[in-house]
């Protein structure tokens, strides 16, 4: 075969002058040595499964359809309008009037890091309540940026009294206190009333994680004096993973925008994100990053569904379905991990691993024979619990019956290691 540069030089003498360039081009066009992978030449296949774990949950057709809408530019006026809708939807589900309300481009971890990065500077004292994996994560994030981290620790499923919290705040004088509202690794829904008052009394900001609880259990950001609140899209909100609501009140904004040092992350710097989301009062929004356009479509639709349904109705349904599940589990002879009913997380139910069984074998059997995801513990609760999540679209008694049937079958079919 005649090389590209030789062919062109015969057709046009001027091309001969650029022969070295053409030779390099010729070599570059024929230098592929790695063939296309066989897997990429096959069509995409995704199994249909019942996602009855701690999240993500199954997504309703209306939200899936929203994600398939045509892409528009992330800086188009129509996109700004959708982002404004998302902001108002988050204000509703958070029950806040905070202007500094938006959705992070990323999972709940993105909002978690955004909160810590913007609120805390190196050397500052922070107090982290740890009764599961999420407190552990926040403590590590704070340590990575050089904060002076103090831990208030309970075993998985334990909760903190307001007296214990106030004593720790008085002792360590933190600029920030963190608490997980819905600790999905243990199935605990932690009481929040009065903690914001304690933090204000001691000039401390109150940061709360509601990734697993938002839409499933009551939370009132303004009334409960929560300074920073965040969540994730993939649980009771029912959107696909990848966006994370977050809100800062005026106290938090004052701390955030009067720092001595810049946040360690450019992507999560609220000085830029506040403009990108139209929260800084400036007439023009400037480019910061390319947001997940389809993800914003689905988040907007999930917030719309929740607004149409009503928060109180959503809370009520999660409470009713979880109570129905509790009765069924007890009828199977299983023990609920959180003994106090009022402290159980409605979206994620934890079961103490039944004596004599290998929990991994039980979960593997359920996935294989029932195409159903349930999970074991996470972080400090590994080996202690199995978790069932019925949230949002999946929060139905018919799904609870399916989960109970699958569990009963697994208990009957899997061998016990001991009587």
Q: Which labels suit this protein?
A:
419 residues; alpha/beta; Aspartate Aminotransferase, domain 2; Aspartate Aminotransferase, domain 1; 2 domains; seven-stranded mixed beta sheet; three-stranded antiparallel beta sheet; 15 helices; 41% helix; 14% strand; globular
Radius of gyration, in angstroms, nearest whole number: 26 Å
Give the percentage of residues in beta strands. Answer: 5-15%
Largest sheet, order of strands side by side? 2-10-9-8-5-3-4
Q: Tell me, what's the shape?
A: globular
Q: For this structure, what is the CATH homologous superfamily of the largest domain?
A: Type I PLP-dependent aspartate aminotransferase-like (Major domain)
Uncertain segments are none
Class inferred from helices and paired strands: alpha/beta
Architecture of the largest domain in CATH?
3-Layer(aba) Sandwich
Largest pleated sheet:
7 strands, mixed
Helical content (DSSP H or I, runs of 4+): 40-55%
CATH fold label of the largest domain: Aspartate Aminotransferase, domain 2
Mean pLDDT: 93
H/E topology pattern: HHHEHHEHEHEHEEEHEEEHHHHEHEEEH
User: How many extended strands?
Assistant: 14
Helix count from the secondary structure assignment = 15
- What is the count of distinct domains? 2
First and last CA, distance? 76 Å
